[in-house]
Specification:
Length: about 270
Amino acid sequence: MRASLIQIAVDEGESIESRRQRAAALVREQAGADLVVLPELWTTGAFAYERFDREAEPLDGPTYETMAKAASDAGVWLHAGSIPERAASEGGSAADGTLYNTSLLFSPSGELVAVYRKIHRFGFDKGEAVLMGRGRELVTVRLPGTTLGVATCYDLRFPELFRGLVDAGAEVLVIPAGWPARRRKHWTLLAQARAVENQAFVLACGTAGTHAGVPQAGHSIVVDPWGEVLAEAGPGEEVLTVDVDPAKVADTREQFPALKDRVLGLEPPRR
């Protein structure tokens, strides 16, 4: 499986529509890949909190339309990164006002096949944590020959989420992010840790540039089930392309069957 991670730069002087079209052109250039991945909140910038409400869009908004066509034109499975989504009310088209950090995944025909709303929102008592609603559902996507498990940025710090994805059949963990440069070492360390402990591939796609004055880490990374780094980008805008063999997941789990030794349902300490 050939995967291309598009580490797009967010320039505050570029309009969202311009960046949307530029990202679509980069997706089309990856024709021949099997899977293409964009970063988290690349339309607005992950730290541009004041833009979330103003630039939020419905699931079927302009980013959906542009990315669906790009996926179809390129003939690729596309994880289109995430957008600030304004959710629709139940049973109707009127927005209920709730914002989510929402990922869109498209088939090679341009069909929307999965939606993931970020579960762990970053910011503690400000920013995304207070401006956006919490996702509730784990999401996996079946591709020919493998199953993707989907997470977003800050989710990377919560290993139980990835255990849930593995239990649901995930073999390739896809993690778009807007990770700050000052914590880049954590980014690399955690990507490798999630790969090793789950014996799965990790495809972690970050942004370059600066989001609301916060320099981004870049350094998108692909890690194999043994924790070996297969490819890593630099700090600037770049397309990272790597061939991964999903069969290596089963081979690794058979050679070193650590997942079979998990002990669940432990009782808390007695006091």
